[in-house]
Amino acid sequence: MVETLSDTRPEVAALQRKLLRQAGAAQKLAMLGQMNQTVKTLALSGLRSRYPDDSIDMLRRRLADLILGPTLAGRVYGAPTVKN
């Protein structure tokens, strides 16, 4: 196993790996969905702090631009109404 920088004690990290190996596919997929939602929430929070005057719809569009790229987001959601 590749060693990474971590503030987690080795015995705790070993327990985490053991529990992850024991988790079923549905549980792993649920964890992945939760992590994905957390990343979106953090990204949206960052966008909100950078563009405090934007509407929630514009912030969501900016998030789509980040996730999908502006070209695909434009094809899916149409042209943005306002761009700062």
Short account of what is shown:
Helices cover 71% and strands 0% of the residues. It is mainly α and 84 residues long. It is elongated.
What does this structure look like?
This protein is mostly helical. The chain has one domain (10-77). It contains four helices and no strands. Helix 2 (25-50) packs across helix 3 (56-68) and helix 3 (56-68) crosses helix 4. The radius of gyration is 18 Å and the shape is elongated.
**Count of individual beta strands:** 0
Low-confidence stretches: none
**What kind of oligomer do you see?**
single chain
Please give the largest β-sheet.
none
Give me the secondary-structure topology.
Layout: H1 10-22, H2 25-50, H3 56-68, H4 70-77
Helix pairs in contact: 2-3, 3-4
List key phrases describing it.
84 residues, mainly alpha, 71% helix
